[in-house]
Amino acid sequence: MSLILRYFSDREPAHLTEGEIIMTEGHRSDRLFVLAEGALEVYRGDVSIAMVTEPGSVFGEMSILLDVDHTANVRAATDAKVHIVDGAKRFIEDNPSFLLPIAHLLAMRLNNSTAYLVDLKRQFQDYKDHFGMVDEVLESLAHEQEEQFMPDDELPDDT
After folding, report:
1. CA dihedral defined by 138, 139, 143, 144, rounded to 10 degrees?
2. CA dihedral of residues 16, 93, 106, 57 (deg, nearest 10)
């Protein structure tokens, strides 16, 4: 994560107070957030997903990369400092090397999720009810891909 912080060495982070919400599930902001100090909680609805304390952790990248609403809420679990990138899509376009640490982060998350699902599959492989659906979830993750990828600069004008 320290690689990510290098992009912000010349910027002063914003200060958050405990409980302050920086991302809201179901909304878009065209912002990236990079933790500099403190702890941020990621949650969906009323379910806590993660408590993040590692400086350089990034939030909002899925929304930017997939062009979708934020998939989770993020709030300051303690007083914290974050770097805020307004115009995140433009920032990524102007700093393509920023994508390598982001890809690494996303690959780690996918690896952890897949390992967890494989463990669930082992535990519930003999179940015939909804627990037995883990196999179907793994299968869909392994094969879900965009129909066609094309860089923005190669897209036809009418898209």
Report:
1. -60
2. -20
